[in-house]
Amino acid sequence: MSVRREAVVAGVTRTHPELTERVVRWAADEASARGLALRILHAQEWPRGAAPDAAPGHPAHAWSTHFRAAGQALLDDACGTAAAAHPGLPVTGELAAGRAAPVLRDAAETAALLVLGARRLTGVEGVLFDRGKGHMLVGHVPCPLALVPQSPATPADGPVVVGVDGSDSSLAAVELAFAEADAAQTELVAVEVRRPRDAAWPEFVEETGLHLSELLAGHAGRYPDTAVRYEILTGDPAPLLASAARHARCLVVGSRGRGGFRGMLLGSTSRDLVNRTACPLLVAPAGAG
Asked: Is the Cβ–Cβ distance between 12 and 44 less than 8 Å?
């Protein structure tokens, strides 16, 4: 039985206000473009031993009331930001108790898109500290996942760039990219990154171009108003895709690829790609291909 996905879900936190605002604005843009409602979600993990439902007179009542009120204030501000950006957009806020990852995973079961912030971590910080809930959820949610970076907002009319490698996962990414470009009424750019040694084949460009043309033609018929072009590059996928998407509305990839893309979003290359891209990174759900 198919699941009805009627809302874009944005996960927000109190830790990084500027990033949270970017997440909300981008999620509101997505919901408006797709004709969907926006659901803003904040998960509060209560400290061990805390009493979330402490009654008046209980020693923890004042603290728990303040803690819950702080979360509600965050949601109220986020809902106000979304409503101001898109008047008339259906927006709701939800305060949930629990660890963020499980709460967000549950919300993704009925979401059309899950939007989270992706804070850039570099050097020793990137090695020693948690890379964020978005990284933890890649490949583990049934809906597309968008990771919005800390960098300044990218142009809304920029193209949608999609990484293609021929795997089932990248086929799902192509489908997601077409839907995204159609909703945003912008161009789609498909980028296939091959190994440098592949360029030695005499028919390299011709065969790769034919493969891309056939792959895209299967989707273009359902999105006749979307302009499509492709690029063929050789080298390291992460920096090349990031460069190709430097002026993009977003970069779309699969949760697992083959060849140069294998493990792209499950290991060190994941952090590399998030840290390199200036635009939101959309990840097609595992198994969607």
From this structure: no
